[in-house]
Amino acid sequence: MSVVSPVLDQIDANLDASLERLFALLRIQSISTDPAYAGQCRNAAQWLVDDLTSIGFEASVRDTSGHPMVVAHHDGPEGSPHVLFYGHYDVQPVDPLELWTDDPFAPSLKEVEPGRKVIFGRGASDDKGQLMLFVEACRAWKQVHGSLPCKITLLFEGEEESGSPSLKPFLEANADELKADFALVCDTGMWDRTTPSIDTSLRGLVGEEITIKAANRDLHSGMYGGAAANPIRILTKILGAVHDDTGRVTIPGFYDGVEETPSQIKQSWDALGQTVEGFLGPIGLSELSGEKGRSLLELVWARPTAEFNGINGGYTGKGFKTVIAAEASAKVSFRLVHKQDPDKIRAAFRKFVEERIPGDCSVEFLRHGGSPAIQLAYDSPVITKAKAALSDEWDKPAVLTGSGGSIPIVGDFRTFLGMESLLVGFALADDCIHSPNEKYDLNSFHKGQRSWARILAALTA
Amino acid sequence: MSVVSPVLDQIDANLDASLERLFALLRIQSISTDPAYAGQCRNAAQWLVDDLTSIGFEASVRDTSGHPMVVAHHDGPEGSPHVLFYGHYDVQPVDPLELWTDDPFAPSLKEVEPGRKVIFGRGASDDKGQLMLFVEACRAWKQVHGSLPCKITLLFEGEEESGSPSLKPFLEANADELKADFALVCDTGMWDRTTPSIDTSLRGLVGEEITIKAANRDLHSGMYGGAAANPIRILTKILGAVHDDTGRVTIPGFYDGVEETPSQIKQSWDALGQTVEGFLGPIGLSELSGEKGRSLLELVWARPTAEFNGINGGYTGKGFKTVIAAEASAKVSFRLVHKQDPDKIRAAFRKFVEERIPGDCSVEFLRHGGSPAIQLAYDSPVITKAKAALSDEWDKPAVLTGSGGSIPIVGDFRTFLGMESLLVGFALADDCIHSPNEKYDLNSFHKGQRSWARILAALTA
User: Lesser CB count within 10 Å: N end or C end of chain B?
Assistant: First the structure.
């Protein structure tokens, strides 16, 4: 009998209890971007420490200048590798709250179609559900074997959804403690409900908030309209100029460092059979909005974007107010690929904006994090072993994919700890992460635990 | 002794009491655009009816499908003209409330510089202070002479700040009762603190709210960015295209009906000595934002505009959310001049927007009122008499000016009652109407009452 078989049985036997534990974690409103929830973030960190301690980890809440980190260690057999598992316990805000069918922080199991149950609640998929997979795999392994197959360090942060301001200082200050042979990062998705995947690329991210200020007070648009600067007009003129008619970003230097994807890779993506209709149909859309002449997967995995994530100015309540606002603001983000430099992109955008501000107006910039893109080697031993382990657990063989989202931690692990990451996750495209009615398939939660047990076995065989 | 002299003395003697009455009216939170304040609007109407009844008017609150009207009548000597005085008792919303130095609905008298006192509070200038001038002039006249010098009808509406939806039906239904020889409208300003003015033109207004809808839910900008439509991007692209680089509006047909102002009129405006620095300096600006090659007064009195009064979409709270919003919206208004047709402007704008909406997205329009511009005859007897009366009261002779704002009632009086209007008002440019910290000079309140008494005397001599 293999070393992993009884662990898989134990995971099966633990399923109901593991679900209760996840629900307890989901009930904690750990929204990191809103300072009002700081106490809840700390509660989530303490909950994880208590749970990890009960398994046998040496776990602690570690203060930062923002929300705390959770760090936990467990020894493994001599000569075994040392792996660092990363996850985040913070979640996105829940607005617009009225679009949720139930309280986002009252998790429940729902049967959405015959035989398919999902875990409903904010963070069910991103990332509390995903991080608990590994915790449960460790618990089951320890219960069966009384030990773990390798030295394991866990790092859970509480600021992933708000730019991770404390992460780099923490990694730098604790590099000796945290450096492992490689990292396991569980914040990605499956290709589909039966096909696991390993992400080999991640887009980077630059976040900027701009506020354009004109008059020193709100103005009557009749008295001043035609003479006085309107900051909403300036803002929309600038943002309206960021893309040309082919969908390309017009900011000078924006495409520096962007590489053409090798044709072999593009062919393997084409072989995945993803259609525009299949991708956009479920969200009510039908046309690709990005650069013309690029395939869907190229657009979301290998091309950079400029997106406007929020915009606000003037009177936005009911009715009408004939006002010229004193200021207007927007939150703008750029998804980066390949060798695009976040600092250069930020500087180029700021220059692009500043050049378009009238002489009697001003602009303020607020930085919201930045991280370069990641491109992993397709043929590393870790990826090869993990691919085989995943293929054993699931109905279909694992595939190598890209990811359109950012996981800045992967770049930080490379930069600060000299460590590459294995990106495996079990989220699905319809999980509604960052949206109302977030969920995580019960199947992902169950077979995800089993997958991590199999990967641990493969990596330590 | 002239008939008006004792009335002027009575106004002087009544000043403190008239101020107390205005404060009582200012305390009523009659914000018409927000349905939550409907009861307060009715309270303001009833307060006016009670006050007018005490003077001897036959006054009543008249229900509409929105906020009620106040109508009051008082007979005059046989053969005297019949004048209709118009004002509005509703006020603008008060947000952003945190920018007010005091409660907007707790009026007070403040000395802003030695010898200059102002009445502080929402509606102090627009329009409760201005409408009470005429009420107080009537009160004083009645107290002195036991009668009024002509037949007077008062019409106070409660929806001027929210598009006046009930006004036209009310005028149509009550045309016989309301039709007078001419109207007196007190919703405009003085040229400066010592120079009264009569407005001979008013810009019209078209208000539109547009909401662009893309995906059926908010999306993660990493997962979908580059593939899925972003409604904020569509909205900013459209609004960013409304003006060209010379400040002209690009909507096809927008300038149909706009006339060149006669050079004689432009010369008289130039003679007023208004500088860009003097106009924009107090609000912290220095550059004209409208069509290039036009003078300041031409831009605000005789040229049309497109303004963006509010914009909203995506995540606008603290921090950052990497979301692609499901929808984005904007409130847009157009100031019209001369013979521009509000319906055609609205239709042209909607077509302009619709042509720029991607095939898988949609747009919804919400109408927020519309009125054509007004251009009065410079040499009518009423204007000539009023100009002389104002020149008697103030330090400097009255001037004929234009107004950048809309007073739709003036067009409605022309359309529905076949009646022209005399536009006289005592607001000042620094009154902060529609903004935080609205005020009305005590001098405007005092000499404005005296001015109306003089005008009544001149018109009935």
Answer: N
